[in-house]
Amino acid sequence: MPDTIALNTTTATAKSFDGPNGAKPKRVLSPRNIMLYGTLFVAAAYYLLPLYVMIVTSLKGMPEIRMGNIFSPPMEITFEPWVKAWATACTGLNCDGLSRGFWNSVRITVPSVIVSIAIASVNGYALANWRFKGSELFFSILVVGAFIPYQVMIYPIVIVLRELGIYGTLTGLIIVHSIFGMPILTLLFRNYFASLPQELFKAARIDGAGFWQIFLKIMVPMSLPIFVVAMILQVTGIWNDFLFGVVFTRPEYYPMTVQLNNIVNSVQGVKEYNVNMAATILTGLVPLVVYFVSGRLFVRGIAAGAVKG
Prior knowledge:
By secondary structure, the protein is mainly alpha-helical.
């Protein structure tokens, strides 16, 4: 019997050294990896190539641009197009560059983002945790409103703002942006709050906490990712908006995008492509910076709030 056990042990030991155990290691240059990374490279090049052309063109002088090679790096780097785009380019009757439009965009974006997120977060919290009679109907109507093309609402809104005496002002445009951001933000906040543990809400209710106490002391501290998502969506949408800015404001209140259009599509004088490219990059910097600073929280918030309900 001991000889049999020893023989079995020897056989098992020999089998253990026959070869490596576990899954076969994957080759780095397998067809699957080549296809995956090749697709990612093509997609990245597709989006980065126009940005590269914009940057190198904005750093060239007009004589070099007229040589025709748009992909070559600048032989002599100059920041004069950037300075002109910011401070002296003509945007209609004014020749103060994008600086006026930048501050108008800031004055439009900041209050619009704050107001829309504040109201939508409370709406989402109430719809998720404080169900009332007709809440589902109200939520359905609100969601349907998110899919109505806003172009069909422009004329009625113009009439309403005119009757209120705020048409052509920054206040009217702020109200418009806040209203149009409400449906999708309410949907995101409602789904996020519904995904949080209900035990916390019930325990707070048992302890006597009310509507605002639960919202401010429990829900808001746990909801940083979805607030970042809402901020990025609103900042990007409002800052990049052109149609509302040109329809609901006067020239002195035009946002940055409208002034960019006036620079790029100007029919007077020589076409300065370096200034146009610099102005385009300056206009898009704010949404890019906001996204890159808070991109990780954006992904977390979307994953947690957009697919649960």
